[in-house]
Amino acid sequence: MRQSWFKYFLLMPGTLWLGLFVAFPTLLVFLTSFLSRNTYGRLLWEFQIDTYLRLFQWEEWIVILRSLKLSLEVTVVCLITGFPLAYYISRVKKSIQLFLLLLVVIPFLTSSLVRTYAWITLLQKEGLINRLLLSLGWIEEPLELLYNEAAVLLGMTYMFLPFMVLPLYAALEKLDTSLLDAARDLGAGAITVFLKIILPMSRQGILAGSLLVFVPSLGYFFIPDLLGGNRTLLMSNYIATRFSQARDWPFGATLSVLLILLTLALVYLFQKKNPKDNAHEKKV
Amino acid sequence: MSLFVRPLRKVVTFLFAIAFLNFCKKNEREVNLFIWSEYIPDNVIQAFERQKNIKVNIAYYTSNEEMLAKILAGSSEFDLAVPSDYYLPILLAEDQLQEIPKENLREFANVDPYFLQTPYDPENRYSIPYMAGHALIIYDRKKTKPLKSYRDLWRSDLRNNIVLLDDMRAVIGMVCRSLGYSWNEKDPQKLEKAGEALKALMPNVKKFDSDSPKKLLIEGEVAAGYVWGAEAALAMKERPSLKAIIPEEGIYLWLDSLVLLKDAPNPENALEFIDYVLKEEVALQIAMAYPYITANAAAKKLLPPEIVTNPAIYPPPSALAKGEFLTELGDVLTIYDRIWNTARR
Known about the structure:
The structure holds two protein chains of two kinds. Chain A has one domain: MetI-like fold (Orthogonal Bundle), CATH 1.10.3720.10. In chain A, 75% of the residues lie in helices and 1% in strands. Chain A is built from 14 helices and two strands. Chain A has helices at residues 2-33, 50-54, 58-91, 94-105, 112-123, 128-136, 149-173, 177-185, 190-201, 203-218, 222-228, 235-243, 249-273, 279-283; strands at residues 36-37, 43-44. In chain A, a hairpin with a 5-residue loop joins β1 (36-37) and β2. Chain B is built from 14 helices and eleven strands. The N and C termini of chain B lie far apart (62 Å). At the A-B interface, α3 of A face α3, β6 and α14 of B.
């Protein structure tokens, strides 16, 4: 009896925290999406669902689909570049592993905004890369490296790579190397080993990493703004301007609700694919 | 248990001490100012506090929307705010302002008559002009032929080579002006045409940037831009090949004014503050600190000639005569928002 009381007592701070800072604000967003507004953007206590009907217009979906496409691209590029890195880290000596992981995490010690500006310094027309290539005589005219989609993809990949590498490493580190030896002994080539053994056994890491990259990249707007030139709308800056210049909080909230639902759907799919994804149970 | 109680006792004592100090503070005179960041020098604030024995509490904002949202949220703690021109009608419509008794302002005569009688507060019952500015065209002489008008921004040799302000009203107003319409165009058909013109301009735009468009100009990333005068002034200092021009079609001006909020807790102190910044020597200090147009005629006379003759900071009188202010558009804003978003889809 005493023990169960204590259990709830221990749960209290976390529950309070989540309730106050996650559940309550989310509820406010839901509420706002159903309210009306006046010309100046003040919210009125009148129920409406017009903002939800607007979601059925094709032009709103152009923005949503473009955001989804960008996030998908970022996830795929992170996966392709992150997998070999994570695999390599998981194969070297333990002491070196720790050092390499530290290198992966170190960029987090600096503000992401500062790191994005560093990319501008590198990529701009009179920036380091262009000046180097010009002085080497490899190019005649400076290259347009900044303010295009490739720059956005590069910046986003750079920002989210650690989120992919860490779960992948966790999955690959547990991989039993004797399985790989056994496969090779039975005559499997490198590609077969990769496809039949390594890939399936690191599926959880791949899914977790992809989710960790895909979901937050949907809401990132300062990298597209700074590296992309802010010329095309993405879901994130579209929502942000609904609250500011458009003075349309209800529609901004509606788009936020859509984003939350999309994210929840992804997490749900992830858990369905991973019915035994409960690391703590294994330990118990 | 005592392990927790002892530090707890200290915390409670500490909280009581803070509450007591707060109580004492209540008897101190103060004024709460809500203002743009980088808009009033620290030494002006300190001098005011010393001379008048009134403490100034400052909160900053970086956009009119942010200011409006915080005031509408019902934070009655502010006495003074400094909204831009077309946000004044909104604050008035939402009943957030109180009249400023101008007869109590000893220094009101210093205000430049050009900035009085604005379309949104013709008798200056609610607003005291503080600082103004404009947007203009700037180009790099080493990178492109001279530009003379907004129309020139559409030139095909400027492909992917201009920076525009990330400001819906400033850009759509400019597009309208280039077509011969008003900066505050409300005719839906004309706005549709402006929307098409904006779309046609997009291939030339490398970046939309309101925060620091000067960066792209200084770094040689773009050949031309439509930017704030202050940004142009700073960029020209860094890169001598840049040249700012007043476009043929005329400029639009913005004006930030001090307003007294309806629920101001310290209206008398707020008036003292307004009167203080209207003083000739104080306004001069402010005008020297930031590259904007001072709304204080007395201070402007004392400014060094190289500042007053710089068209990026002080547009020549002929340009001022043709200058327009932006006005509140009400529901037409929805059309602006649609044009703005369609061009970027």
